[in-house]
Amino acid sequence: MCRRNILLWLLAFLLLATPQAGAGGLSVPEGLIEGANAVIHSEQTVFTVNSPGSGVTTYKVRMTILNENGKQRAKLYVPYDKLSKVDYLEGTIYDRSGKKIRSLKKKEIEDISAMNSFSLFEDNRVKIADLTYTMYPYTVEFEYQLSSNNMLFYPVWHPQDGEELAVEQASFEVHMPQGMRLRYQEANMPKPGKKTASATHDIYRWEVSNLQPIEREPYGPGFEELVPVVRTAPTDFEVEGYKGNMESWKSYGLWINQLNQGRDQLPEATKQKLRALTADAQTEEEKILRIYDYLQGKTRYVSIQLGIGGWQPFEASFVDSKGYGDCKALTNYTQAMLKAVGIESYHALIRAGENEPDIKTDFPSSQFNHVILCVPTEKDTLWLECTSQIEAAGYLGSFTGNRHALLITPEGGKLVKTNAYAAADNAQLRSIHVKLDEKGSGLASVTTRYTGMQQEARNQVIHNMKPEEQRKWLYQQVKVPSFEISKHAFEQRQTQLPVVTESLELRLRQCATISGKRMFVTPNLMSQWTFVPDQKEKRLTDVVRTMAFLDVDTVTFELPAGYTVEYLPQDARYKSTFGEFTATVKVEGRQVTYIRRMQMGKGRYKAAAYPEFVEFLNNIVKSDKQQVVFVKNPS
């Protein structure tokens, strides 16, 4: 599974929504070119299922590349592996008048390994056909056929696969042997598909035409929600002799059980070591934490994807002896170790990735790219990311949090939801003390406590960067006009809600502005909000916020002697559907204390709420720019 599934998604995606071609000189319906970098004139995709274990995809496309921003669509990538082969791949390029420039030669087609940097062995390869040209507009045609012995994945058809792409006409057909049932799900289709029959096959066909370029709105839904999509999936399927059924999540989980069966055996010596390691643990959770710590110290993530090995884990004994494995192998190994000390756990298939959309829970199919471990306990469920040597036990965060996972239980698959993180979980709590001199420069001591998703970047920095590299990274992160870092340090607490405390000592140049006898201070030193999306006359799509967070800043300025307040901003307090904001400034003698609190929620809101969202952010921007004005008393 893991990265192999990502590549197979790419395969299906490129088979059905690859950058496409048109013929030079062809007329285009009015309204399609405006806002487009490329126009698909015609696209035909036919997926023919021969049996539960084999099928063929043929693909033909004709597209005009209009400008430099569309040129990447004149390069075609066709992935394949041990379970598939490219039968043929052809291409032709035409100039703006429709005159043929040349055809693609076989020797021009690159055939390279698609193995990535974290893989030890993979059978993934990709053929690359490049017909990019420098004189716009020009037209390209591509045609190929791919045969596959892996029927775990049926195509997902995206006739309009990106912004600034127009589609004149596209069609998608699935040919199923009579007696085999196709499952499919349509979204945003202008009209439903039609079913006909030949002597041997049931034929399903979908068509779209005259699709204008899509432009996403700020804070809008994912692109896939805005364009036509047809998802298809098998009922019965077979991969390298392993037969399965995908009609329900339960039956799909039973197929995964087949692949995992008998692969959790550990050497007796390892079992004895694990029992000794956990013998004096006071609770079951403490046992789990010790096993997880042992895993992180002993193993590393390496992808080995060959044939069915893309979904079937290596034996636990293999990982135990070699010290490496991919996500499913390391998960299986951890499950075996927990079993050795009497703790039950379950594999959990999941779609991992920051801001990845959740799976379609009402459409059982192979939508996953990763495996983690679910450990039920008396108090709660503990989730373990078995590929990481640095993540805290129980923390899922932006990579696998707040989405559905498929538990692989002895009874089959069962959908469950992983942990969600509220605003208070994703906190940035900052305390700053600044000592100003009469020139407006200063020395600042900054302590910031990051939790949840807000600590993730610094977690990576702590474990993957040397001190000097950390220092360079901090220079990019600290949002102060002119400064030098004198010292920096990190402390970390690895709990289910991990915490990173960052300590900085900064030399600030022109932290305050001096004009004659006045000193102007912007009390919000490091957390100014700067982005406000454009206000549209009519918002078309919902407003979507994917992360909740809480930022609290307490900033204390110590002024040089002789200054008194001339202007103090009023307290700010804004509350909206999307969050809350407060800011206060108090002056006591030579000390100015600024307290700012900004909390934003996550969720989906109606388009009608967008003006309120823009107004809320505008108010925050204005408040964050407010200044306190001091005047120097005559000596």
From TrEMBL:
List residues of the Transglutaminase-like domain.
Answer: 275-345
List keywords of the entry alphabetically. Answer: Signal
Where does the record place the DUF3857 domain? Answer: 52-214
Quote the Pfam families the UniProt record gives: DUF3857, Transglut_core
Tell me which positions the record assigns to the signal sequence: 1-23
Spans through the membrane: none
Q: Could you tell me which Gene3D superfamilies the record lists for this protein? A: 2.60.120.1130, 2.60.40.3140, 3.10.620.30
Keyword tRNA-binding (UniProt): no
**Protein's name according to its UniProt entry:** Transglutaminase-like superfamily protein
